[in-house]
């Protein structure tokens, strides 16, 4: 394992400048140390809970619950017929009560509220605890829980995760480690994204031998309240909550307009339509993708009149709408 590159963020720190064109992770020490949320965390867990309660309007939230036997790891059950946790609608203050009630217990159940829109469940949190990201409009989410272990997974958007309270350990793997991480099902996942089937705390190398290579190239960092980490698109990341109360605020954004489709949809469609073709035909379609997608440039359609380039021209919103309508029409046949 290796350490993640890190920088200390002083008062003159320009976040957007540091991240421009960056494709590797970066730990941002003290990026949000000025946040009121972090200042409450320096006081006590109770102060953090009181601060979040003061912002909570009473709306329902979705939370995960696991028995102590899960060891904090949200995963499948033994035969993969389901999961080792339950998910139900509850209240934010009820989650906080459960966490504080079991604080200090060695066999505490796991309480975890993940990926909940911050302005929905805690209006005012983002205004009081701002992060300036020039040129993007991120989705801002709140995560909180006690000691937990979210197994390695990837996200399509770029991500800045800010530790508001507690301590977290991030273990990251480059996208090229995909096969070495032994991904689980694409269409049956604990929380929407495929996860690594390897228990990183006790890896079974007899069953998952290639994980040794992933482990060797893993990047690790521990973050305190006030620290943040930049996780580029498609980097696998495992996140462990190490404290009795852990609060995270994360910012997701894509580097393409919102009207562009999701790459994961294209992957699923390719599995439906291309994966099971004869090898010779798959090779032809690989060439098609290289020409029209992966190696596409100004010369791809330069031989055509500009008004006749259609979907080969740079993607604009009206072109995206046209493509989406074509796909819907064909898929509904």
Automatic annotation (TrEMBL):
Listed SMART domains: JmjC
Domain of life according to the entry: Bacteria
Pfam families: Cupin_8
Domain JmjC: from-to ranges: 85-268
InterPro entries in the record: Cupin_8 (IPR041667), JmjC_dom (IPR003347), RmlC-like_jellyroll (IPR014710)
Name of protein: Cupin-like domain-containing protein
Species name: Rheinheimera aquimaris
